[in-house]
Amino acid sequence: MLLDTPICDFGWKAPDFTLKNPNGDAFTMSEHLGEKGLLIMFICNHCPYVKAIASRLSKDTQQLMAEGINVLAVMSNDYQTVDADSPANMLRFAEQHGFSFPYLVDEDQHVGKQYGAVCTPDFFGFNHLGELQYRGRLDDARLQDDSNRVPELVNAMQLIAAIGKGPKQQTASMGCSIKWR
């Protein structure tokens, strides 16, 4: 089912969490909340929307990380039902697309529920205080030709890094619904 993300709830405080990547390494959100902010993305392997933007997502997040903005990705889908989203397939998908950010398994789906994630991809841009400042889309290209795209996520995270506040105008991300148990 195709869903849109809700409007940004400016100032909403990010709940802390610790999740593991498919290799068993633990990552704690609060330890990644850097001076220039943190992007938390809810993505998965099988979603056609995530597949369509995966190479752009990889490039954009590499740029953000090079600028000192931290990035974490969370996979909250029930991979017992959707095998394509299993931890082994997460490793393959991340390698295939050159993801350089931690890609974490939300085994019991509690993080996705705490954050109110609704679809993949779902982007949450936080300032250095852990306050939500962006809940929009990757860019304006969507599933179309991306040659003249506006990189809305990059622009928003750069603004958050510079002044601690995100853009007032944001366009919702859209994608497949998270597969809940």
Automatic annotation (TrEMBL):
<dbReference type="Pfam" id="PF00578">
    <property type="entry name" value="AhpC-TSA"/>
</dbReference>
<feature type="domain" description="Thioredoxin">
    <location>
        <begin position="8"/>
        <end position="159"/>
    </location>
</feature>
<dbReference type="InterPro" id="IPR047262">
    <property type="entry name" value="PRX-like1"/>
</dbReference>
<dbReference type="InterPro" id="IPR013766">
    <property type="entry name" value="Thioredoxin_domain"/>
</dbReference>
<dbReference type="InterPro" id="IPR000866">
    <property type="entry name" value="AhpC/TSA"/>
</dbReference>
<protein>
    <submittedName>
        <fullName>Thioredoxin family protein</fullName>
    </submittedName>
</protein>
<dbReference type="InterPro" id="IPR036249">
    <property type="entry name" value="Thioredoxin-like_sf"/>
</dbReference>
